[in-house]
Specification:
Order of helices and strands: HHEHEHHEHHHEEEHHHEHHHHEHEEH
Distance between the termini: 37 Å
Strand order of the largest sheet: 2-3-4-1-5
Low-confidence stretches: none
Largest sheet: 5 strands, parallel
Oligomer: single chain
Structural class: alpha/beta
Radius of gyration: 21 Å
Number of helices: 17
Shape: globular
Length: 368
């Protein structure tokens, strides 16, 4: 088995024979039922791969999907103009980096679709590009934004925060004026947007972060674990001299335990489990891959004790909606993946929060 560790490009995974967990039935459901979405998931949870899969689908690259569920569901395979924005790669803690990144995208697209000198702001230039792309191709445009919030998270609780927030606000407000040119919009990030001012004036996307229909869109379910990874689980069991069932329980305790809706479907961290299979060692891979600096900054301000946060029931508004408040770190801790839902009380509509698994529990306590 070839494991796509660090590979977030759908075409590369499919063309080079890496293992791919088929999420395309959910992708088809997503594109068939709506047009503007937002999905929040912790880092290294497969958001970028999902965006890349959507890009390949809207580019009409039917050959990449042979043998996958969507091949039997999609009949048309039209080609749309795709505008893919990825804020993953840059460090936005320096002044001017965000503006340069946006300018780079706009410049490349204007080379493809032409430039109108009458439009000078990033927002108006983007609307004009969407219009030109739609008219040139005869199909409405698709906009895919990966890690939309990284330019803010990189500067959270610093003097640059307000500047980056205003720059993004001017850029994202485009979508409201460009509605007639848009076929599909997907934004991903760690933090939710409901209280973030960058989205004022924007047609609010449908937030599917806690939608039971899409809870397994990123990550690996128990059923997928056993269907795709029987062989490496057996190899690990043999190496550690235990039974197959005992190894399944060890992997579950170490890497499983995420829940993203009231359905309580168990989701494994894909980054950690793939690394464990690749190296045939059970270690703390996700936490070792880096601690978000914004979380460290928020926790340094906070007087909250972690044992006062875990094992309690909360209304969703207290942890699911993002608000940069140094006195209330709970939303950031949850959205960053260090706490997850462990129970749902349908009578009070409240959620029990706790550590998802052993890897995160150990890592987070060592961070504190």
């Amino acid at each position: 088995m070839k494991y796509p560790i660090g590979i977030q490009t759908f075409s590369r995974i499919r063309e080079n024979g890496y293992v791919y967990i088929d999420k395309t039935a959910l992708i088809h459901q997503l594109v068939s039922r709506g047009s503007i979405y937002f999905l929040s998931r912790p880092r290294r949870f497969g958001k970028s791969l999902m965006i890349s899969t959507l890009e390949a689908y809207y580019e009409g690259r039917k050959e990449l999907f042979e043998g996958l569920a969507i091949a039997g569901l999609e009949k048309d395979w039209f080609q749309y103009p795709v505008f893919h924005i990825d804020f993953n790669g840059d460090n936005f803690a320096k002044e001017g980096v965000l503006e340069a990144a946006i300018e780079g995208y706009l410049g490349n697209w204007e080379d493809m679709y032409g430039k109108n000198p009458n439009y000078t702001t990033p927002g108006t230039r983007f609307i004009e590009l969407l219009r030109r792309a739609s008219e040139k191709t005869g199909r409405r445009a698709v906009v895919l934004v990966d890690e939309y919030d990284k330019p803010i998270l990189d500067v959270l609780d610093t003097p640059l925060e307000e500047e980056n927030r205003n720059t993004l606000k001017a850029f994202y407000s485009t979508f409201k004026g460009a509605d007639k040119y848009l076929q599909f919009v997907m934004l991903t990030g760690v933090t939710k947007f409901s209280q973030v001012s960058v989205f004022s004036g924007f047609n609010q996307p449908k937030d599917i972060s806690m939608d039971p229909r899409y809870e397994s869109l990123c990550g690996i379910t128990q059923e997928e674990m056993e269907r795709y990874f029987h062989e490496p689980i057996s190899e690990l069991a043999e190496k550690d001299e235990c039974t197959y069932e005992e190894m399944k329980e060890r992997l579950k305790a170490q890497y499983d335990g995420y829940h993203f809706s009231e359905n309580m479907l168990d989701i494994y961290n894909p980054f950690s489990i793939l690394n464990a299979f690749d190296s045939l060692q059970i270690r703390d891979y996700w936490f070792a891959s880096g601690t978000p600096t914004y979380l460290v900054r928020l926790l340094q301000h906070s007087n909250e004790q972690i044992n006062e946060l875990v094992g309690q029931y909360y209304d969703a508004s207290l942890f699911a909606d993002y608000k940069a408040d140094v006195e209330r770190p709970l939303p950031m801790i949850y959205q960053s993946g260090y706490l997850t839902i462990k129970d749902y009380d349908k009578y009070t509509h409240s959620y029990l929060l706790d550590f998802p698994n052993d890897e995160v529990r150990r890592g987070f306590l060592s961070l504190l």
